[in-house]
Design brief:
The chain has helices at about 10-30, 40-55, 125-140, 150-165; strands at about 55, 75-80, 80-85, 95-105, 110-120, 170, 175, 185-190, 205-210, 210-215, 220, 230, 235-240, 240-245, 250. By secondary structure, it is of the alpha+beta class. Strands 1, 2, 4 and 5 form a four-stranded antiparallel sheet that branches. Strand 11 (about 220) and strand 12 form a beta hairpin. Helix 3 (about 125-140) packs antiparallel against helix 4. The chain is globular.
């Protein structure tokens, strides 16, 4: 494992990239309404990134080994879809929950990555609670971050809180280092044992993005080669921020004017 420590200049570039990614979510939020398709959300986000921000949508044509190129500019994971959902022509319905995952590449070549859950119209109490608990899991993980702590501390606190509330944690997908590359070391698991894994050092930058299921943790992949769903078709939720380890704790890089604040505890 080779974890890159970012320079002060690189950190400043990452602040810009992550804020821009979050601003895409600020822009698209009012459009997430009953009747709109995820394909239209994708088109709106693409146009905003390219024509307003001057950024590049990182997912578009992204093709890690073993994958076909991803065909859209954002990921839209709906209801029982866990991650990497491909936007399509199905309109959103009242009661849906959907994760919009945004990654931009700036002109300077840095990646900014963040995602949020959106509730479409009036949702069930179960759906709303799942999204709330997942958001709290994200922030519990973030709040463990400080120089000298361990990567395993993040996963341990997320797993404990999710399972205490009757939910399960997806094991096969995780957070990741990020910078000039979309995915770098380390892998940031959302389960595990405190005090294990690499020790955190100032200048590390990585995402925390817990995927929490209302049912069991088991997953399946759709034939499109990208979309991951819950095997039992239970609801799934995910929130994501990009985090900088600082000398005194952490900095959430993917904040913007309309970003939901940390939950009151």
């Amino acid at each position: 494992m080779s974890i890159l420590i970012k320079t002060p200049e690189e950190i400043e570039h990452m602040r810009v990239a992550c804020r821009l990614a979050s601003e895409v979510l600020d822009y698209i939020a009012p459009h997430v309404q009953v009747g709109i398709t995820t394909a239209e959300l994708d088109r709106l986000c693409h146009d905003y990134m390219v024509n307003v921000q001057g950024t590049v949508p990182a997912p578009l044509h992204y093709a890690p080994p073993g994958y076909t190129p991803y065909p859209k500019s954002i990921c839209t994971s709906l209801n029982h879809q866990i991650c990497h959902g491909i936007p399509d022509e199905r309109p959103l319905k009242k009661g849906d929950i959907v994760n919009l995952d945004i990654t931009v590449i700036t002109k300077a070549g840095f990646h900014g990555d963040t995602s949020r859950m959106f509730l479409v119209g009036e949702t069930s109490i179960q759906a709303r609670r799942l999204c709330e608990i997942t958001f709290e899991c994200l922030w519990l993980g973030i709040q463990t971050v400080r120089a000298g702590s361990f990567l395993g501390d993040i996963g341990a606190v997320i797993q404990k809180y999710a399972e205490k509330n009757g939910y399960s944690v997806v094991r096969e997908f995780c957070g990741h280092g990020i910078g000039r590359k979309f995915h770098e070391d380390p892998q940031v698991l959302h389960y595990g044992k405190a005090g294990t894994g690499p020790q955190l050092k100032p200048g590390m930058i990585f995402t925390i993005e817990p995927m929490i299921n209302a049912g069991k943790a088991a997953i399946s992949a759709l034939p499109d080669g990208w979309t991951i769903i819950t095997r039992d078709r239970s609801l799934s939720a995910q929130w994501e921020h990009t985090i900088l380890v600082t000398e005194t704790g952490f900095e959430v890089l993917s904040l913007s004017a309309a970003c939901p604040p940390a939950p009151a505890r």
